Inverse folding.
């Protein structure tokens, strides 16, 4: 009889320990959620999509500026040959290609087909 009671006590104590851990985990998750909501109300959080759109705009502006360098240099330095300007253009495009991410080709279209247009 004593062994049965002790065995039941261990099972109940083990279950109680698990319930305590689960309550603590729930309380921590609720606290995290409350902190995120408070930060959002204070305007401290920015949506990922908004940041991505803004950075894409910045990168496109820089890309357009870099791709315009050969024609601007050609206008300022008329003594440069067409070959010199083409070399500058190719170097800029090579640098832009080497710095792109895995899906940047879609955004920046630096392949030869895009260059010819």
């Amino acid at each position: 009889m004593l062994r049965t009671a002790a065995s039941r006590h261990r099972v109940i104590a083990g279950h109680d320990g698990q319930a305590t851990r689960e309550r603590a985990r729930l309380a921590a998750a609720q606290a995290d959620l409350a902190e995120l909501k408070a930060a959002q109300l204070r305007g401290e959080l920015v949506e990922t999509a908004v940041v991505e759109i803004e950075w894409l705009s910045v990168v496109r502006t820089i890309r357009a500026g870099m791709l315009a360098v050969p024609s601007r240099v050609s206008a300022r330095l008329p003594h440069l040959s067409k070959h010199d300007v083409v070399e500058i253009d190719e170097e800029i495009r090579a640098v832009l290609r080497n710095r792109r991410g895995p899906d940047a080709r879609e955004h920046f279209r630096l392949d030869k087909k895009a260059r010819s247009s």
Observations:
- Residues 9 and 25 are 24 Å apart (CA to CA).
